[in-house]
Amino acid sequence: MYRTLSTTARLALVGIPLAFAAQPGAKASGFALPEHSAAGIGTTNALVANPDDPGAFAYNPAAMGFHDSSSIAVGTLFIGPSFQVTNSTGTHESQGVDWIGVPMIQGALKVNDRWRLGLGVNAPFGLETRWKTGTFPALTDELALGPIRIPLSPQPLQSKLEVLSVVPTATYRVNDQLSLSAGVDYYWAKSAVLDSSVANLEGDGDGWGYNLSFLFKRDALSIGGSFHSAATIAIDGDYEALSQALVFLGGLLPSQSAELDLNLPWRLQLGARYAFTDRLAVEVDWSRIGWSEFDKIRIETKNGGQLIQEDINDWSDANAYRLGLTYQWRPTTVLRLGYTYDETGQGDDHFSARVPDSDRHLFGIGLGQDLGHGWALDVGYMYVLFEDRDYRSTTPYTPGSADINGTDAINGDYEASAHLFGLEIRRTF
Questions:
Q1: In total, how many domains does the chain have?
Q2: For the domain that residue 133 is a member of, what is the CATH number?
Q3: What is the pLDDT of residues 364-415, one digit of tens each?
Q4: pTM score, whole prediction
Q5: What DSSP element (H or E) covers 150?
Q6: Strand partners, 336
Q7: 3-class DSSP assignment, residue 254
Q8: What are phi and psi of 318, to 5 degrees?
Q9: Which domain holds residue 112?
Q10: How many CA atoms lie within 13 A of 330 on its CB side?
Q11: Which of 2, 10, 270, 339 can pair with 250 through a Cys bridge, CB separation 3.0 to 4.6 Å?
């Protein structure tokens, strides 16, 4: 009997149907943020096959091989999310910050006619959701311990994940038509916060991956591809239980160190671009994110490795289909347009209020202006429309289980949209 109660208590202790997951600020499926340049925002990230625009370096470092100058670009992506759920307790909006700012930095150094070195800094993954207490109805099934009654399914409150990446790359120009690139991805989770109605967890950590890319150009046609490997960030954090009864049942301390592995997915993008005239070019891209890597979250005590929680995510790999258009309006001014249909990798079996993900439509517009004397300015705007998700649990509920799935606690109509604005200044020398 004690073992059953201890397992239930441990599962309820942290209370995360999914620890690190999507939020209204993330603009790709799951919690990925693929927006790495202002030019990419204007084309909804359809830049992997563009040999002409320096804004493509962050998407495909092999593009540096087709540029004869060095450059440095510095900018910021601003994200303004709007997100709400309508359920049995009413209509509720997420209480996250109104605007989120993330960096966009990309440097390119010409070493000689063959070699280029690159360095990028961006935020490829992130999340923030905050739900007020009482947003989701409490379950009627509770654990009774004499006069004490403990809800078996904790309610999500705040989730926050900030991941920065530093991406050094080396590019080799094989010939006039082909360029190849390789590099490493260093990920730093500078902030990871998990709060629920029964426990809090906060920590940070880092991890490594690698990237490969190519770009081929012949006459008006160019074909490009970029791959970022899967990676694991080891998170070390501080755990604090808010329920003394659950601490007793789980055999854990009220406050202690905890650790978990955050598995980041691999990312693949392939594209083809065709310049119909000297002014007009169109690019079509296909992206795929390996969310099957994000199969589970296992949280353990740092000293002793005692299980605190293990959650099965069971996500699927997801696709995005991108269309980008560039038009040289004036000799010093380029216009950009884009549209993307982005699929979610999250099914109903492991849906979470921390992960109210859905398919979405991205609409982008942007402008690039040559300011003279080696200076240029890029601006981009994107509107993201999430398809409404009317979630109704399909998983049979097991009495006494701590799993919030299979209950009506997170049933509801989820709606979201977001505005993105990117501003970037570039110096070529």
A1: 1
A2: 2.40.160.60
A3: 999 999 999 999 999 999 999 999 888 887 665 555 455 555 567 778 888 8
A4: 0.86
A5: strand 148-151
A6: 326, 366
A7: coil
A8: -130, 150
A9: 2-428
A10: 7
A11: 10
